[in-house]
Design brief:
The protein has four helices and five strands; from the N terminus they run αααβββββα. The protein has 163 residues and is an alpha+beta fold. It has one domain: Nuclear Transport Factor 2, Chain: A, CATH 3.10.450. Strands 1, 2, 3, 4 and 5 form a five-stranded antiparallel β-sheet that branches. A hairpin with a 5-residue loop joins strand 2 and strand 3. The longest helix has 27 residues.
């Protein structure tokens, strides 16, 4: 009987162990491209992103995770507090310049607003697009993939939203 129990544990344990290890390795990898890493970071500012920004960490360079998370959290706070209604930032025209293991991604980012008027009708509008610049680095070994090490963006307050 003990042999059957051990056989079941081994048969189930090995695939589960491989799944856990595989998931952990994928979680430590960056994005497939510099543009994908930029899009993931931009998406972390959206209304449907996780509250603690934990899922975006895999797309940030390890030595600046805390700094970039703080900047992103401050930006999310501004977007959530604006009286302009629900705001979402949309990126378009991703232009990537790669040199070796580093890349620069220029993105046109516009704010998309949704508000509800007095009659209950939803009003959608879009603001003017402005350039954001992401600086990415390609990892190696188990931490392969592209990660964002820095980005520059216009101030949200006054450019995109009312604060």
């Amino acid at each position: 009987m003990l042999g059957v129990v051990l056989a079941v544990i081994v048969a189930v344990g090995v695939p589960v162990g491989l799944w856990v290890v595989g998931g952990t390795l994928r979680a430590s990898q960056g994005a497939a491209s510099p543009a994908a890493a930029s899009e993931a970071v931009l998406g972390s500012l959206g209304p449907y992103a996780d509250d603690d920004l934990s899922t975006v960490e895999r797309y940030l360079c390890p030595d600046v995770v805390a700094e970039l998370r703080q900047r992103l959290q401050e930006m999310r706070g501004q977007l959530e507090a604006t009286p302009d209604g629900d705001v979402r930032l949309d990126g378009s025209d991703f232009l990537t310049t790669t040199e070796g293991g580093t890349a620069t991604v220029r993105v046109r980012v516009a704010a998309r607003f949704s508000t509800v008027d007095a009659s209950g009708q939803v009003i959608l509008s879009r603001g003017e697009a402005h350039e954001w610049v992401f600086r990415a680095q390609q990892g190696s070994g188990l931490r392969k993939g592209w990660r964002i090490c820095d980005f520059t963006a216009p101030a949200l307050c006054g450019i995109y939203i009312t604060c």
